């Protein structure tokens, strides 16, 4: 799998052959690769493990805590606009909900996925001390994502007819279509913001991102209330504030970078950003496919529930569960970002044992966190559904689905960690194929079979699709277990050199 990733990144076709001289050289190098001087010492006792575990936990959560906070703040931008839209009118709420979940959600998945290519490249370059390459990588990603935004703009312009084709009502489609046109500036903010985020994450500058996100959230809440409700601007006010909030985040982060806070990582704009663009595009596309396949998988769960008997009750109950899961996923995304940075930094620094131990600590930490959150829901399963619905039928289904939700929370706290390792090591293309097989070849058909053929309803659909997630998690676990971390560190060195950096000293 490391060879597949190296092939993806290789700028010349002849180097893509597994029997090429470059490939044989890399295999020989991996066999003789020696870890860096600062790699973790061998662990020979429980005391050694506990000592190193505590050290790594501090490093992990130094990155994860602000990353979780930033994710929650940014997730809340759209949620606040949606909440206030409900006080404007029913059609306004529907328009914002559809635009957020369908149009902006689709764009977010693609942009965030393509931007995650920088987690591999920036993280490994930073670990190797090739700081000058971080700014070059970010500029390459800007070029690719801004081009992608131009290609996606027609989807915003023609959102109304596209939504009608999916079965949305005339009124909702027209209102959401108008909202989508107003939200085009947000699309371009995504294209600039996500490369910046990965650039800063690779340098462990999470606190700056958190501070900017916190200020943006406070301003967003105040001005959304002022324009949408107090001044009566309605949907137009919501669009203005949401666009302004995302561009505030972008500008504030750029000011932070341009002021010299990143040292050699930002040395100004360079024509080198236009070199090796095609290889960068391929890695970005692989990253986007890997992430989007996961996001759309759970979007399909709600879609399938809409075709059941008592669809309204089923969708309401499932929406409550997915809403809770969505907040939990924000925590998992923070851990995902943290472990990706740790793995890529340590591989880039030629510390394979530390990279492997970082993975162990992240999996244990996320599993314990998932179990704690799941236990809270199980204990309160008779009470928490009433916080979301007054309908007794909906509350009863939510209560019935709680064990499934708890199991899903545990799995979805571990699975993003494994995906973060894949991103940190540069395995996006391989994981994309794994996701296609596990999710769409196995999970979706099994869910539909259990939900419709065997008449298990929403529980059957969710159970079948969860089986796909479990298999994907097991395959990733097997891939990571069999990984030669010395070889991955040597591949990281080759990758940095081929993409413009120097060899690790």
From TrEMBL:
Subcellular locations according to the entry: Membrane
Cellular component aspect of the GO annotation: membrane
Biased composition (Basic and acidic residues): 11-29
Transmembrane segments: 60-81, 101-121, 142-163, 175-194, 206-227, 233-259, 280-305, 317-339, 359-381, 401-423, 430-449, 461-481
Membrane topology annotation: Multi-pass membrane protein
Gene Ontology terms for molecular function: antiporter activity; xenobiotic transmembrane transporter activity
One Pfam family matching this protein: MatE
InterPro entries: MATE_euk, MATE_fam
CDD domains, per the entry: MATE_eukaryotic
Keywords tagged on the record: Membrane, Transmembrane, Transmembrane helix
Region: Disordered, residue numbers: 1-36
Superkingdom field: Eukaryota
Similarity remark: Belongs to the multi antimicrobial extrusion (MATE) (TC 2.A.66.1) family.
Name of the protein in its database record: Protein DETOXIFICATION
Lineage: Eukaryota, Viridiplantae, Streptophyta, Embryophyta, Tracheophyta
Recorded name of the encoding gene: LOC111019813
């Amino acid at each position: 799998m490391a060879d597949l990733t190296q092939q993806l990144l290789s700028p010349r076709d002849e180097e893509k052959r597994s029997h090429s001289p470059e490939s044989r050289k890399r295999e020989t190098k991996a066999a003789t690769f020696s870890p860096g001087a600062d790699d973790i010492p061998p662990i020979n006792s429980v005391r050694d493990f506990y000592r190193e575990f505590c050290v790594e936990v501090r490093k992990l959560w130094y990155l994860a805590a602000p990353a979780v906070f930033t994710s929650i703040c940014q997730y809340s931008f759209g949620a606040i606009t949606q909440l206030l839209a409900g006080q404007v009118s029913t059609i306004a709420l529907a328009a914002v909900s559809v635009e957020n979940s369908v149009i902006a959600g689709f764009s977010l998945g693609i942009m965030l996925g393509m931007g995650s290519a920088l987690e591999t490249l920036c993280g490994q370059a930073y670990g190797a001390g090739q700081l000058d390459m971080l700014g070059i990588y970010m500029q390459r990603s800007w070029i690719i994502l801004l081009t992608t935004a131009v290609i996606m703009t027609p989807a915003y312009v023609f959102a109304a007819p596209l939504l009608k084709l999916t079965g949305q009502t005339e009124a909702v489609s027209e209102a959401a279509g108008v909202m989508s046109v107003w939200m085009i500036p947000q699309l371009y903010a995504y294209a600039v913001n996500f490369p910046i985020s990965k650039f800063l994450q690779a340098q462990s500058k999470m606190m700056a991102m958190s501070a900017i996100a916190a200020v943006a959230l406070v301003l967003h809440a105040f001005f959304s209330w002022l324009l949408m409700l107090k001044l009566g601007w309605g949907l137009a006010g919501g669009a203005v504030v949401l666009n302004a909030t995302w561009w505030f985040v972008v500008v504030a982060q750029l000011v932070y970078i341009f002021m010299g806070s990143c040292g050699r990582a930002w040395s100004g704009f360079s024509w080198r950003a236009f070199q090796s663009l095609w290889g960068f595009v391929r890695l970005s596309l692989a990253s986007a496919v890997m992430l989007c396949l996961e996001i759309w998988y759970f979007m399909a769960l709600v879609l399938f529930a809409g075709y059941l008997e008592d669809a309204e009750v089923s969708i309401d109950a499932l929406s409550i569960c997915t809403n809770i899961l969505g907040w939990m996923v924000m925590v998992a995304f923070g851990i995902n970002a943290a472990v990706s940075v740790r793995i890529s930094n340590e591989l880039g620094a030629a510390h394979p044992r530390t990279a492997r131990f970082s993975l162990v600590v992240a999996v244990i930490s996320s599993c314990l966190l998932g179990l704690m959150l799941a236990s809270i829901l199980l204990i309160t399963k008779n009470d928490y559904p009433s916080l979301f619905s007054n309908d007794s039928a909906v509350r009863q289904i939510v209560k019935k689905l709680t064990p499934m939700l708890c199991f899903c929370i545990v799995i979805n706290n571990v699975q993003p960690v494994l995906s973060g390792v894949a991103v940190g090591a540069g395995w996006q293309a391989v994981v994309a194929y794994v996701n296609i097989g596990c999710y769409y070849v196995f999970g979706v058909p099994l869910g539909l079979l259990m939900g419709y053929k065997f008449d298990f309803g929403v529980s059957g659909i969710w159970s079948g699709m969860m089986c796909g997630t479990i298999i994907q998690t097991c395959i990733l676990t097997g891939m990571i277990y069999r990984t030669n971390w010395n070889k991955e560190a040597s591949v990281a060195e080759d990758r940095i050199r081929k993409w413009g950096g120097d060899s690790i000293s």
